[in-house]
Amino acid sequence: MPLRNLSDPDNLPALDRRYALDRPALGLGAGDPPPRILLLYGSLRERSFSRLCVEEAARLLQFFGCETRIFDPSTLPLPDQVTGDDHPAVHELRELSMWSEGHVWCSPERHGQITGIMKLQVDHLPLSMGGMRPTQGRTLAVMQVSAGSQSFNSVNTLRVLGRWMRMVTIPNQSSVAKAFAEFDESDRMKPSAYYDRIVDVMEELVRFTILLRPHTAQLVDRYSERKEAGVPIDSATDLSSIATSPTYRKGE
């Protein structure tokens, strides 16, 4: 399977646990089962800093009580390269997105934009797939890494893509400048304001995912889709119809 194994998942050397909430969404909703988060990164380099950032994010998410899976895009074909997108890596990516309740996307900035590898993964996620929707209603956190000074081009583009994929993109984001200087010889992120921001973003992702969990079906319910599918509103069971009926209003 095109999944990355996460080394030392319980080792968080840059996290000051005196200030860390192990359940940041406590009180916002049911935390069981654990929130399911899919993480995507945008580089195939052997030492990919977008992958390393995603791995740090995954460790934090597990610390916060989530279940995580990191997709490895190294075997993913180009769109339309394989007839009908019938390729094991494409199937796996789509199944992982269907499994997930939230995503983390992290891309390097190359020529002022996200990488082709990052866009490739998004391009293989259809809005609709056999009546199922692999991205709609899921939460999304966006991050980027840069070789030079801090920039926000990639996270801004990822926000556009997230909105297009009908995802709930959280307000916070992370942009790591000069990423090559932020990791030690063991490929672990050093304590810094950049690391602290990733902690902030993952905390917020968990909160939004838990908060929206009971309401996802209602939030993505659309008139146009009900009309296309020929599914009329049942006024006997629809709460909004009941609440606005003359009989109900008379009894208020």
What this model shows, in words?
The chain is α/β, with parallel strands linked by helices. Helix content is 35%, strand content 14%. The chain has helices spanning 49-63, 88-99, 116-123, 153-164, 193-212, 216-219, 223-229, 239-244, 246-250; strands at residues 3-4, 36-41, 67-71, 102-108, 139-145, 168-176. A 6-stranded mixed sheet has the order 1-3-2-4-5-6, sandwiched between helices. Strand 4 (102-108), helix 3 and strand 5 form a beta-alpha-beta unit. Helix 1 (49-63) packs across helix 5 (193-212). The longest helix is centred in the last third of the chain and has 20 residues, at 193-212.
Summarize this entry quickly.
The chain contains nine helices and six strands; from the N terminus they run E-E-H-E-H-E-H-E-H-E-H-H-H-H-H.
Which key phrases capture this entry?
252 residues; alpha/beta; six-stranded mixed beta sheet; 9 helices; 35% helix
